[in-house]
Specification:
By secondary structure, the protein is an alpha/beta fold. The protein contains 6 helices and 5 strands, in the order H-E-H-E-H-E-H-E-E-H-H. Strand 4 and strand 5 form a beta hairpin. One of its GO terms (cellular component) is cytoplasm.
């Protein structure tokens, strides 16, 4: 029952302010991964990453996704570093990703998910806290990424026959 209540708290990207940061990120429950999107209004790259995060937040409702204007979080944070993702667990930064290049040539939800899960089981579907569930989530992320790449490759095929 407690697990179901925790899952229902998330499922979207929550806007926070600088004064909310400690409560919402640093003091989040220890078993909750928090993905922080540092952004600036009007930057297309930030909008693209946000759309990916919104999709991931729905798929992985036990992972907490928040966004904060970069200057509210880190005074004088350079715009050239945006968007930036910070990944927290147990009050500590576990990973950071600066710029869209961190997520491959095309920033897709599948690519972002794959990067987020490379070193730790950041994404959580809320089904269970077991290692088996975490492995299932990671396998699902990998499968969706491969499926997306194959589909895009087939869509780009110009229909010509390969040269011998």
């Amino acid at each position: 029952m407690r697990e179901a209540a925790k899952v229902s708290k998330y499922g979207s990207v929550m806007q926070i302010s600088g004064s909310d940061f400690v409560r919402e990120v640093s003091q989040a429950p220890q078993d909750v991964w928090v993905v922080v999107h540092l952004y600036k209004e009007g930057l297309p790259e930030c909008g693209l990453l946000l759309r990916c995060l919104e999709e991931l937040a729905v798929k992985y409702p036990a992972t907490k996704f928040v966004e904060i204007i970069s200057a509210d979080c880190i005074p004088n944070y350079p715009d050239r570093n945006l968007p930036t993702l910070l990944v927290y667990n147990s009050g500590a930064v576990k990973a950071n990703y600066v710029g869209l290049h961190s997520f491959g040539r095309r920033c897709t939800p599948e690519g972002v998910a794959l990067v987020l899960c490379q070193s730790d089981p950041v994404l959580n579907d809320g089904q269970s806290g077991s290692d088996q569930s975490q492995k299932a989530v990671l396998e699902g992320v990998r499968w969706r990424f491969i499926e997306k790449v194959v589909t895009e490759h087939e869509d780009r095929d110009d229909g010509g026959s390969p040269s011998d």
